[in-house]
Amino acid sequence: MKQGYDEVERTNFASKAFVTLQKLQSNSVNQSTSDDTVFSLSDLRTDIRFEHLRSHLVPPPRFERATLQNYIADENFPSQAQAKIELQAFIDSLNQSQNGFQKLFGAFSKKPAQTGLYLDGVFGIGKTHLLASVFHAVQSPKKLYLSFTELVYFIGLLGLEKCAKEMSLYRLICIDEFELDDPGNTTMSLGFLSRVMEQNVAIVTTSNTPPLRLGEGRFDVRNFQREIGDIAKRFKTVQIDGKDYRQKLAQEKSTHSSFWTMPDVKSAYEQFQATEARKKLRLDEAELFSLLRRYHPMHYFELAENLSAVFIEGIGQIHDQFDALRFVYFIDKLYDDNVQVFASARIELERLFPDAFYHSAYAKKYWRCISRLKEMCG
User: Fold this and answer.
1) Quick one: 335 and 365 in the same domain?
2) Is residue 64, in this structure, part of any structural domain at all?
3) Residue 179 contacts residue 92 (beta carbons within 8 Å)
4) CA 218, CA 185: separation in Å to the nearest integer?
5) Domain residues for 367?
6) Could you give the residue ranges of the DSSP H alpha helices within 235-337?
């Protein structure tokens, strides 16, 4: 039994990939491609509508059925089972409250109300699954789910005060992959959390970095130590240990099912049966990075939800760190929306990023990307 994640979801994804490969390999005649099933960049809106995005602030399709019950804790890491207990208690407290957060968290107490849980742990142990489980289990329509990148975008779009005011109307906000990358997003995100938590909005977030070490190695965090410390006091940290389940899953797959080093991506693309609702997209390396540079990362959100598969020809090692970080976020969105990835890569997956990147401040982002690609591609 695979542990630390939803067994059903992993099995379904692997089975889907295997069936897809069988279909591609058994079809020796190139089929004509219908324009109705091919994604065109003209389908991508040039503007980003806040109302459209806000209606999508729920767990992504990959985690739409996530629960604490179908998260299978690894018995070798007791902290996973303990995390489920902590989260269930948190959920029960929210659901049992009758008079809002003032009663639940003691708004009239002289001490700051602890209104958050901080799920800290390495990638590939199911933190996002647990986060989505909390969202689904809390019995209130006043809840939001978004990534940290999306939160920073909303703050920039609406302004700090307006964004905090609007989101303070919610009972629960779930934030995935919280991280402080630079002074700009640090100022915005800490200011936002301070304002909404003063209104006793419950926050649950995931991260690969303990709260008091946020931003280390990325910028000079000394000027923000007081603010980081104040915010950290509002969270109860839930440490989750474990090993990357996707690594084990990739090892169990047959090497013949790899979609990362396919010899003929064009034929696979032509044979792939997409639909008008979820289309397919084929790009070479230059076109891919031109696309990622051209559009704000929030466009990747819309792009992913309209695709069933992406075909990438001739991708090699990514040497530019800005391109690499854009690619990481792009893969995150494809992963969330269950988009399949097919590639004729010129390099092994583990060497997609230079060695120096794996020792940089963003190393965990790159390792998470590789981990997810292993599951997506085999």
Assistant:
1) yes
2) no
3) no
4) 12
5) 20-48+244-377
6) 245-252, 265-271, 285-294, 297-305, 321-336
For residues 16 and 201, what is the distance between their CA atoms, to the nearest angstrom?
Answer: 39
| pLDDT one-digit tens code per residue, 280-301 | 999 999 999 999 999 888 889 8
Amino acid code (one letter) for 221: V
Residue 159: left if φ>0, alpha if ψ -120 to 50, beta else—which one? Answer: left
3 state SS of 161: helix
Q: CATH no. for residue 141?
A: 3.40.50.300
Total-model pTM? 0.78
287 shares a domain with 197: no
> What is the tens place of the pLDDT at every residue in 242-267?
987 766 655 555 444 479 999 999 99
Contact by Cβ (8 Å): 206, 124:
no
Query: Do 114 and 183 belong to one domain?
Result: yes
On whether the CB atoms of residues 171 and 94 are closer than 8 A, the answer is: yes
Q: Are residues 140 and 218 in the same domain?
A: yes
Yes or no: say if 368 and 328 are a contact pair by the CB < 8 Å rule: yes
Q: How far apart are CA 190 and CA 206, in angstroms?
A: 15
Please give the structure tokens belonging to residue 358. Answer: 């794996």
